[in-house]
C-alpha cells in the first residue's frame, strides 16, 4: 500500500512537471515576433514582395531579344495545276516543309522603358506595403495582448477579494457555531462568496476567449498553452511630449509610392503616341520534294532576311488622349487621398496625446484611491472584529477596494492602448519588438 502511494506521488509530480513545461511564457515582444513569422497577413505581404521581383523579370524580358523557332511538314494530297498553252503543269511537290529561327529586338519602344521603371517602383511599393502590414499586425497583437493582461489582473483582484470574504465567512461561521454570531450574517457572507465565485467564472471564461483571440492574432495553434509573464505596466509620462513627423509615416510613404506608380501609368499611356522601332531577322529552310523529307527525294533551299520594323501612330480617334486624361484624374484623386491621410494621422496623433494625458491623471487618481480603499478595508475589518462595524460596512469596504483595483487596471490598459497609438503615430511601432 505504501509503495502504491509513493508511485502515485511520483506520477503526480511527473504530470505536473510536464504541464508546467508545456506552459509557454509569452511576452509582448515574443508575441509580436511570432506573429511576424507565422501570421497569414505577414506571409502574404512577404510573398507580394517576392512576386514583385518576378514582375520585374517579366518586363525586363520583353526588352531582351525574342528568339523563336518554328517548323511545319505538309503532304499535298492534291497538287494544284496550271495550264500554260496546251500543257498542264503541277505547281508543287507532294511533300513540303519549313523550318526556321526568327529574332526580334526592340530598338525603341517607350512603353517597354516605362514598364521597366514601373516594375521597379512596384517592388518598392510592395516593400513599403509589407512594412505597413507588419505595423498593423503589431498594433492588433499589442491590443489583444493588453486585453489578456487586464483580464488577468481583474482575475487576481477577484481572487484577493474572494479569499478575504471567504476568511470573513469562516470566522462568522465559527461564531455562529459557538452561538456568538448571527445566522443572517453568515447567510449574507455566503451570498457574497457565491457571487464572487460566479463573477470569477465569468472572468475565467472571458480570459480563455481573449487568450484564444491573442493566439489567433499571432497565428498560434489553439492547442498551445501560453501564460503572460508577471510584470507591471510601465508608465512613461514624457511620451506625450514627443513630436511627430507625418512625412515619415508608412501610410504616407505608401501613398506617395502609389502616386508615383500612377504617374508612370500616365507615362505609359503617353508612350502610345511615340513611334516603335524593332529589328527583325530570320534564317530557315523551305523544303519540297516527291518523297518524305528524311530519306526521300527532297531539297532544302535556305532562306534568310534582316529588316527594321517601324510603327508610327498618326490618328487614333482621340482614344489615347482620353486614356491620358483618365490617368491624370487618378493621380489627382490619389493626391487628395494623401492629403486626407495626413490630416487623419495628425488627428490620431493629437487624440493619442490627449488620451495619454487623461490616462495619466486617471491612473494617479485610481492609485491613490486603491491605497485609500485598502486602508479603509483594513480599518473596517479591525472594527468588525472588535464589534465596532457592521457586516454591511465590511462587505461594502471589500467591494470598494475591488472596484478601485479594477478601475486602476482599466486606466492602465487605456494608457497602454493610447501609448501604442502614439507610438504608431510617431512611426515607431517596430520599436516594440526590441523593448
UniProtKB/TrEMBL annotation:
Keywords from the UniProt entry: Cell outer membrane, Coiled coil, Membrane, Signal, Transmembrane, Transmembrane beta strand, Transport
Transmembrane as UniProt keyword: yes
Segments traversing the membrane: none
Entries under InterPro entries matching the protein: OMP_efflux, TolC-like
Ribosomal protein as UniProt keyword: no
Subcellular location, principal: membrane
Cited Pfam families: OEP (PF02321)
Coiled-coil ranges (or none): 394-435
Residues spanning the signal sequence: 1-22
Alphabetized SUPFAM superfamilies for the sequence: Outer membrane efflux proteins (OEP) (SSF56954)
Subcellular location: Cell outer membrane
Family classification: Belongs to the outer membrane factor (OMF) (TC 1.B.17) family.
Protein name per Swiss-Prot or TrEMBL: TolC family protein
Amino acid at each position: 500500500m505504501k509503495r502504491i502511494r509513493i508511485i502515485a506521488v511520483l506520477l503526480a509530480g511527473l504530470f505536473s512537471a510536464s504541464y508546467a513545461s508545456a506552459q509557454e511564457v509569452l511576452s509582448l515582444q515574443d508575441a509580436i515576433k511570432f506573429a511576424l513569422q507565422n501570421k497569414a497577413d505577414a506571409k502574404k505581404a512577404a510573398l507580394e514582395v517576392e512576386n514583385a521581383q518576378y514582375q520585374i523579370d517579366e518586363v525586363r524580358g520583353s526588352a531582351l531579344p525574342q528568339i523563336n523557332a518554328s517548323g511545319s511538314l505538309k503532304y499535298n494530297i492534291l497538287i494544284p495545276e496550271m495550264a500554260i498553252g496546251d500543257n498542264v503543269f503541277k505547281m508543287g511537290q507532294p511533300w513540303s516543309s519549313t523550318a526556321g529561327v526568327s529574332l526580334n529586338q526592340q530598338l525603341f519602344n517607350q512603353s517597354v522603358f516605362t514598364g521597366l521603371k514601373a516594375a521597379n517602383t512596384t517592388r518598392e511599393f510592395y516593400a513599403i506595403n509589407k512594412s505597413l502590414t507588419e505595423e498593423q499586425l503589431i498594433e492588433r497583437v499589442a491590443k489583444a495582448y493588453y486585453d489578456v493582461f487586464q483580464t488577468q489582473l481583474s482575475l487576481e483582484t477577484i481572487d484577493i477579494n474572494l479569499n478575504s470574504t471567504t476568511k470573513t465567512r469562516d470566522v462568522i461561521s465559527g461564531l455562529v457555531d459557538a452561538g456568538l454570531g448571527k445566522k443572517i450574517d453568515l447567510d449574507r457572507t455566503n451570498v457574497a462568496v457565491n457571487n464572487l465565485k460566479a463573477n470569477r467564472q465569468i472572468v475565467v471564461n472571458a480570459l480563455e476567449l481573449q487568450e484564444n483571440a491573442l493566439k489567433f492574432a499571432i497565428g498560434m495553434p489553439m492547442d498551445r498553452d501560453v501564460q503572460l509573464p508577471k510584470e507591471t505596466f510601465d508608465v512613461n509620462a514624457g511620451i506625450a511630449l514627443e513630436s511627430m513627423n507625418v512625412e515619415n509615416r508608412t501610410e504616407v510613404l505608401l501613398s506617395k509610392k502609389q502616386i508615383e506608380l500612377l504617374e508612370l501609368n500616365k507615362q505609359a499611356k503617353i508612350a502610345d503616341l511615340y513611334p516603335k522601332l524593332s529589328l527583325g531577322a530570320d534564317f530557315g529552310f523551305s523544303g519540297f520534294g516527291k518523297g518524305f523529307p528524311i530519306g526521300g527525294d527532297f531539297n532544302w533551299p535556305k532562306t534568310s532576311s534582316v529588316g527594321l520594323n517601324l510603327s508610327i501612330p498618326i490618328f487614333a480617334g482621340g482614344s489615347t488622349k482620353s486614356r491620358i486624361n483618365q490617368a491624370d484624374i487618378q493621380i489627382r484623386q490619389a493626391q487628395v487621398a494623401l492629403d486626407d491621410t495626413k490630416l487623419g494621422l495628425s488627428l490620431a496623433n493629437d487624440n493619442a496625446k490627449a488620451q495619454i494625458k487623461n490616462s495619466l491623471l486617471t491612473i494617479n487618481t485610481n492609485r491613490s484611491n486603491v491605497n485609500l480603499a485598502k486602508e479603509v478595508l483594513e480599518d473596517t475589518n479591525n472594527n468588525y472584529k472588535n464589534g465596532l462595524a457592521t457586516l454591511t460596512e465590511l462587505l461594502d469596504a471589500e467591494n470598494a477596494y475591488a472596484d478601485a483595483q479594477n478601475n486602476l487596471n482599466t486606466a492602465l490598459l487605456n494608457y497602454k492602448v493610447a501609448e501604442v497609438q502614439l507610438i504608431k503615430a510617431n512611426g515607431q511601432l517596430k520599436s516594440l519588438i526590441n523593448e
